[in-house]
């Protein structure tokens, strides 16, 4: 029986050892001074922001979640959400220019007419020959067959339907905020 007991004790010790690093693997959502969720940051970075006074804990009414980090002498409570106390300069972000790679990502690597994932090309919704521009709101991923079928026609001259309205990629902060609030919506 002795080896078994040893085994349990060993795994318990391993469990204790792994506890602190696993807490440190968590991430904290950081909000701007005007309560816009901006990004997920490493818990260590959050502690540094809190200890230096650059951020404060943020309670989102329905949650009061904290992780407790123990050192030999103190226990530090780290909230799941923190808010910056000073305004940071808005990170500069330039709308990326239209590229095949970005377009494929936006359209989920699928033809936006038939859903095919094969032989993907770029289609101009308003044909270039009719003054259509090479801009985010006028380009879509289309398979070769659909692109050929649509040809030089306006969309309303065909029976084809777009699965998604072409639009420019969102500012990363706005995209994060949208995703954050959606993930908190009750099911
Ligand atoms: Zn297609």
Automatic annotation (TrEMBL):
InterPro entries linked: HNH_5 (IPR029471), HNH_nuc (IPR003615), NA-targeting_endonuclease (IPR052892)
The protein's name in its UniProt record: Restriction endonuclease
Pfam families, per database record: HNH_5 (PF14279)
Domain HNH nuclease per the UniProt entry, residue ranges: 98-148
UniProt-listed SMART domains: HNHc
Superkingdom, taxonomy of origin: Bacteria
CDD domains associated with the record: HNHc
GO molecular function: endonuclease activity
Keywords annotated in UniProt: Endonuclease, Hydrolase, Nuclease
Organism: Chamaesiphon minutus (strain ATCC 27169 / PCC 6605)
């Amino acid at each position: 029986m002795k080896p078994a007991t040893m085994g349990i004790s060993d795994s318990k010790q391993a469990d204790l050892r792994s506890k602190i690093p696993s807490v440190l693997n968590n991430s904290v959502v950081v909000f701007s001074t005007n309560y816009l969720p901006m990004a997920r940051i490493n818990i260590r970075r959050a502690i540094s922001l809190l200890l230096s006074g650059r951020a404060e804990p943020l309670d989102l009414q329905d949650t009061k979640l904290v992780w407790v980090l123990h050192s030999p002498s103190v226990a530090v409570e780290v909230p799941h959400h923190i808010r910056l106390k000073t305004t940071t300069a808005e990170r500069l972000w330039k709308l990326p220019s239209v590229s095949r790679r970005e377009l494929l990502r936006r359209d989920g690597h699928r033809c936006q007419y038939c859903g095919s994932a094969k032989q993907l090309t770029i289609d101009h919704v308003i044909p270039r020959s009719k003054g259509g521009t090479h801009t985010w709101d006028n380009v879509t991923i289309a398979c070769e067959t659909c692109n050929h079928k649509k040809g030089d026609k306006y969309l309303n001259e065909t029976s084809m339907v777009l699965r998604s309205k072409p639009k420019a990629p969102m500012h990363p902060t706005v995209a994060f905020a949208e995703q954050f609030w959606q993930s908190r919506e009750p099911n």
